[in-house]
Amino acid sequence: MAEVLKGAPVAKALTERLAARAAELTARGVTPKLALLRVGERADDLAYERAAVKRCDKVGIAVQRIALPADCGQAELEAAIDRVNADASVHGCLMFRPLPRQLDERAACARLDPAKDMDGVTEGSLAGVFCNERRGFPPCTAEAVLELLRHYGVALEGADVVVIGRSLVIGRPVSLMLQAANATVTMCHTRTRDLAAKCRAADVVVVAAGHPGTFGADCAAAGQVVVDVGINWDEAAGRLVGDVDFDAVEPIVRAVTPVPGGVGSVTTACLAKHVIEAAERTLD
């Protein structure tokens, strides 16, 4: 039976460390502050907003909510971004995506100051991930994968890691971050030939394909650690599932993350971490 790597203990430990850093900032006259920029009232955006506010409250981060109507225009959105960029009291901004179809999301992301980009949406942040430099911030979910592996003591130095997925949100950035941790990374995707064989040869597999059942028993191997980043709604079962067939894989591997309750529950803690780091950078 595999060890189930739950996200809650990771988030709790990270939150406690961040609260101490927030207190140090406050003692130096700096109140870390996050702007949450939301267009419309999508249910998933509202749910994440509530979770982010709750996490920030625990850490000691002030939150400014900026809510624009779903039918707002590009100029209105970019004006809001400009105000965030110009406000010295705001250290970070999370802009909820995807944006409504009438908006140019790429232009909106480019408008945001990379120093205040908390979720890796700007080219400046992605360049920082590529160069392994303190420039902007990586996507919160990609950071959450690394935080979870560190918390549970999963050795990455010299490890063979397979990443399934190549998106700019998770697959590509997490591959670069794993390489920075001295892992040997093979990037795969749903069209990779003999995907199962490549997965079986890995010490760690990060599954971020966006398709339920991508990683099944044929991909699993004894002693392996499997991190499931997928979030999918299973209509038949009426519940959230990941990209990993948990029931089939869990008896084989050494450790596996659940969905829900795994990587996703660490993302708001990583968001808070980025805000604290952004505030600390202003003092450097």
Strand order of the largest sheet: 1-11-8-7-5-6
- List the helices and strands in order: EHEHEHEHHHEHEHEEEEHEH
Q: Give me the CATH superfamily of the largest domain.
A: NAD(P)-binding Rossmann-like Domain
Task: Please give the largest β-sheet.
Answer: 6 strands, parallel
What does this structure look like?
Helix 1 (8-27) runs parallel beside helix 10, helix 2 (43-59) packs across helix 10 and helix 6 packs across helix 10 (267-281). This protein folds into two domains: 29-113, 3-Layer(aba) Sandwich (Rossmann fold), CATH 3.40.50; 140-263, Rossmann fold (3-Layer(aba) Sandwich). It has helices at residues 8-27, 43-59, 74-86, 105-111, 123-131, 140-151, 171-180, 195-200, 246-249, 267-281; strands at 3-4, 33-39, 62-68, 92-95, 160-164, 184-188, 204-207, 225-228, 232-234, 239-241, 255-256. It has a six-stranded parallel beta sheet. Strands 3-2-4 form a three-stranded parallel beta sheet, sandwiched between helices. A two-stranded antiparallel sheet has the order 9-10. Strand 5 (160-164), helix 7 and strand 6 form a beta-alpha-beta unit. By secondary structure, it is α/β, with parallel strands linked by helices.
